[in-house]
Amino acid sequence: MPTPGHSRTRRTPLHKSPSGMQGRTLALVRELRLLTETTRALASAREAKSVLRVIFDKAKALVRCEAWSLFLIDPSTHELVFDMVGGPKARRLKGLRIKTGQGIVGWVAQRGKPAMVNDTRTDRRFLSDIDRATRFITRSVLCVPIFIRKHPAAVLEMVNKVGKPFDRLDQRLLTHLAEQASIALERASLQEQATSLGGTDELTKLHNTRFLEQALDREARRCRRYGSIMALIFLDLDDFKRINDQHGHPLGSQCLAELAQIMLKSVRDVDILARYGGDEFVVILPETTVSTARAVAERLHESITSHIFLSEQGIEARLTASIGIAGFPDHAQSKEELLRKADEAMYRAKAAGPNRIHIAE
Predict the structure, then answer these.
(1) What is the DSSP letter of 115?
(2) pLDDT digits over 204-262, tens only?
(3) Displacement of CA 182 from its chain's centroid (Å)
(4) What is the pLDDT of residues 81-98, one digit of tens each?
(5) DSSP single-letter state for residue 358
(6) DSSP secondary structure string, 84-108?
């Protein structure tokens, strides 16, 4: 016959089991309630922006953190754009971009997999540039991708969970949120964001390459049909990598935003100014001779070299640019050839200088 002590030993697991089962049941009830509430909220969200706002707000309420971000993936450049931000230094992050594959969020966008890091100091993927620019300390990160048609379209990032580390339950709940968002976005589509990101560069607010291609095609057809002319300016900053290396990518992005404003003041309203990619910019000048385009390029040149960049951040940075010019039909008979000739002229200017202007041969 077993002793009382043995009897108590056998019964102990039975007392613990309901407690563990109760914890799992509560977690399942919490998940079900979350999914139900999210489904109801998304039912009235008919635009992509509204869908993402619902997901962003639910994530903030679900997992208490010091900061949150929702990144959109620019379909033309595949860069991640800070679209919704919350927490300290949030205003400084709005509109900034991270290249795909860079940092933990870039890794998530590239791989289409969630990432949970409870000590960023030990993770090689962690990108410290943002912290340096904002003076915010990122200790832990949880990121989940949001898909549209099986391709990552956005990334939800939670930073510095309050009270305790991120755990698998947090990741599972956020993954459920992301799956709900994917279904809603499939229904609503990213039409609103496609409109803004499809034609406008989020960082500089200039036109982007997609819009540039359409504009070049339109202007080339107009020139051929009516025997008119146009000119193209291709501008590339000299040694821009130095700014990113010395001051970090966020401040490099700020330089590009300042440059965009300088260039806008140096061209006409009818001219089409676009960010071609990275630190390259293109200006289409309708009904403009090559000699007039040269005068515009010299004005751009002077405005850039005389400007002090990042002065509000206490940094006095100087930049120069190499500029190439080509004309239609002087140097090219198609939009592709015009762009290529202006690009080649820019590289000749850079090789001869840099900080020079060169006209296509």
Answers:
(1) E
(2) 989 888 888 888 988 888 788 778 899 999 999 998 989 888 888 889 899 999 999 99
(3) 19
(4) 988 888 877 777 877 889
(5) E
(6) EEESTTHHHHTT-EE-TTSHHHHHH
Cα 290 from chain centre: 35
User: Cβ-count burial of 37 within 10 angstroms (0-12 exposed, 13-18 middle, 19+ buried)?
Assistant: middle
pTM for the structure as a whole: 0.49
CATH for 200-359, options being 3.40.50.920, 2.40.50.140, 3.30.70.270, 3.40.50.2000: 3.30.70.270
- Listed residue (260, 152, 281, 268) closest to 209, CA to CA: 281
CATH fold, domain 22-192, is Beta-Lactamase (3.30.450)
Whole-number mean pLDDT of the chain?
Answer: 85
Do strands 230-237 and 280-286 pair parallel, antiparallel, or not at all (unpaired)? antiparallel
End-to-end CA distance of the chain: 105
